[in-house]
């Protein structure tokens, strides 16, 4: 995939300098420290989208690129948010921002852990993994599951929770390199398969048969979804979480095995984590307890890229689409 270039007539992104407004009452001035890089951002900028079909407003030409971030409060006119505090907010791709205090979330102190974990295992990806397993997969002790995109931000948490918290009897993980597969076996996968291997399809079928699996947690769509449909038990479930295989090429979504959904009465359900934000505390309690008990490892679960040139921020984000990250991909643009 080509690296995005700035300053051309056909560039997707343009670098601009803006003047920030003066703080009003109950507002904060933020310095961005870490950006969250998410495959969903690709969908937010898709050209000529029907906004009625999206779960958030699209990013239109001329808009600030939307992104979640961890920030330090430089100034505050709010009694509830103190200067120097670390907060989480959707500031977009910007070095600094002025927001209403109610638009930021203060972060607790976790000794020994980088605050960036709140963009990964204890953030949106962790919540996605937890609610996807509990509410969509409805995974029960002793059941079997396949997880694609397993070395990604959400996938690695799914693998660990499925094995160590939900107590699945078999977790089959799919990733894009042998090194990633070895890491996945260390953190909980019973079987880890490299989808680039010539024997992948046969290896996947061998891992799932003869019992077949109860659930497939789909982070990629495309040909891997197609392959997994024929390996799910009758009345099994698919948690449709992502489709990164087709975000830049819709032709990748060819489902020759779709008849399996009918023949085996498989439930395929899409979900978006924002639907569960009202239950965030429930997930954070489970996730933080899992970290404390050693059931959820955050070591090795993030790739932090230090970006000294702000115009390189889109280039770091693009690494998602070529598999250059293990776990959560985070861009750091300033010191804590």
TrEMBL record:
InterPro entries: ADH-like_C (IPR013149), ADH_N_2 (IPR041694), ER (IPR020843), GroES-like_sf (IPR011032), MDR_fam (IPR045010), NAD(P)-bd_dom_sf (IPR036291). SMART domains: PKS_ER. SUPFAM superfamilies: GroES-like, NAD(P)-binding Rossmann-fold domains. Residues 8-331 form the Enoyl reductase (ER) domain. It holds the Pfam family ADH_N_2. One of its GO terms (molecular function) is oxidoreductase activity, acting on the CH-CH group of donors, NAD or NADP as acceptor. Keywords: Oxidoreductase. The keyword Oxidoreductase applies. PANTHER family: ENOYL REDUCTASE (ER) DOMAIN-CONTAINING PROTEIN, PROSTAGLANDIN REDUCTASE. This is NAD(P)-binding protein.
């Amino acid at each position: 995939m080509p690296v995005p270039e700035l300053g051309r007539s056909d560039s997707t992104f343009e670098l601009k300098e803006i003047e920030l407004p003066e703080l009003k009452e109950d507002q904060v001035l933020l310095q961005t420290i870490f950006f969250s890089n998410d495959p969903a951002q690709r969908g937010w900028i898709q050209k000529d989208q029907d906004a009625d079909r999206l779960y958030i407003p699209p990013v239109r030409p001329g808009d600030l690129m939307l992104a979640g971030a961890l920030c330090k409060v430089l100034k505050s006119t709010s009694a509830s948010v103190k200067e120097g505090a670390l907060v989480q907010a959707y500031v977009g791709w910007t070095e600094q921002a002025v927001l209403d205090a109610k638009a930021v979330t203060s972060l607790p102190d976790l000794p020994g852990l980088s605050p960036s974990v709140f963009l990964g295992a204890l953030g949106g990806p962790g919540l996605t993994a937890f609610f996807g397993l509990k509410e969509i997969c409805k995974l029960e002790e002793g059941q079997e599951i396949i997880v694609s995109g397993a070395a990604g931000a959400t996938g690695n948490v799914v693998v660990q929770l499925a094995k160590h918290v939900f107590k699945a009897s078999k977790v089959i993980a799919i990733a894009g390199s042998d090194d990633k597969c070895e890491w996945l076996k260390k953190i909980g996968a019973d079987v880890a398969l490299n989808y680039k291997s010539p024997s992948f399809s046969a290896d996947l079928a061998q891992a799932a048969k003869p019992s077949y699996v109860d659930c497939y947690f789909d982070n990629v769509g495309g040909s891997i979804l197609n392959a997994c449909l024929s390996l799910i038990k009758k009345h099994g479930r698919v948690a449709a979480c992502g489709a990164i295989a087709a975000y830049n090429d819709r032709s990748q979504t060819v489902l020759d095995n779709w008849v399996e959904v009918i023949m085996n009465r498989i439930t395929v359900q899409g979900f978006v984590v924002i639907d569960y934000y009202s239950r965030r505390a429930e997930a954070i309690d489970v996730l933080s307890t899992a970290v404390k008990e050693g059931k959820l490892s955050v070591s090795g679960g993030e790739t932090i890229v230090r970006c000294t040139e702000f115009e390189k921020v889109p280039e770091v984000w693009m690494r998602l689409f070529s598999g250059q990250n293990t776990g959560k991909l985070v861009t750091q643009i300033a010191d804590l």
